[in-house]
Amino acid sequence: xxxxxxxxxxxxxxxxxxxxxxxxxxxxxxxxxxxxxxxxxxxxxxxxxxxxxxxxxxxxxxxxxxxxxxxxxxxxxxxxxxxxxxxxxxxxxxxxxxxxxxxxxxxxxxxxxxxxxxxxxxxxxxxxxxxxxxxxxxxxxxxxxxxxxxxxxxxxxxxxxxxxxxxxxxxxxxxxxxxxxxxxxxxxxxxxxxxxxxxxxxxxxxxxxxxxxxxxxxxxxxxxxxxxxxxxxxxxxxxxxxxxxxxxxxxxxxxxxxxxxxxxxxxxxxxxxxxxxxxxxxxxxxxxxxxxxxxxxxxxxxxxxxxxxxxxxx
Length: 314
What we know:
- The protein folds into two domains: about 1-200, Spore Coat Polysaccharide Biosynthesis Protein SpsA, Chain A, CATH 3.90.550.10; about 210-310, no CATH class.
- It has 13 helices and nine strands.
- The chain has helices spanning about 5-20, 40-50, 60-70, 90-100, 130-140, 155-160, 170-180, 205-220, 225-230, 240-245, 250-270, 275-280, 290-310; strands spanning about 1-5, 25-30, 50-55, 75-80, 85, 105-115, 120-125, 150, 185-195.
- Strands 4, 5, 6, 7, 8 and 9 form a six-stranded mixed beta sheet that branches. It has a three-stranded parallel beta sheet with strand order 1-2-3, sandwiched between helices.
- Strand 2, helix 2 (about 40-50) and strand 3 form a beta-alpha-beta unit.
- Helix 8 (about 205-220) packs across helix 11 (about 250-270).
- The protein is globular, with a radius of gyration of 20 Å.
- The two termini are about 30 Å apart.
């Protein structure tokens, strides 16, 4: 569990792990330079339960924190959970059963109930369940809920863990690589409470996430690309990176516009209106934007403005 200024929700998240029906586990809490006393909360739990180990990340960032945890993990399986989400008590038990019964499967995700910052249910996430469907969909979009995942630790290590260069979609890049050597499936059971709120990492730096997603999918679809482009020399994925790996400028603009609109619509679907406003405000309106696309953006901006005017920022 990577922890970054998560004190508000941390108690619930840790409690969800400690109440698992499968009790034989080690909980690694990886503090990522928190400054809100999250580390004190972690240490308090560690003193009361020997299964909890607190680590302090040596390099800032989600991918670095996860790799740091993987390096210290000792189990056969690795379960992910974020510090603002909550596991259903039977989650570990159900996922272990799937992995034990299906040696060809390396990653098991689940469906999730979506709750807001106050814990009120606002929807659900139901990605595809079959390995064949997931493998085909992965080349166009991420269809695995990262904090719901349990994976074979050896496979994650052998494939190289998370790659920090794919900022914002480190998990997506990992699934794409694992899918080349093993199966990925999702349980059609709501085994996670996935919290959506304005401060969550997945809403931040949307353009960077989209650029990274495009690059990850392109690398996955072209096996020889990594032999021609040294990812170790790239600090972050940007437009220039996409041009180098074969994207045309118009392709990049189209993808950024379409995926940004899609992200804003997802925020609206889950009643994250301020987040949607912020996402659309950062979308650069170019003269060559197709009329229908421009009309959608202007409609959404007007809708969100009027809603804010009538109902406030709630």
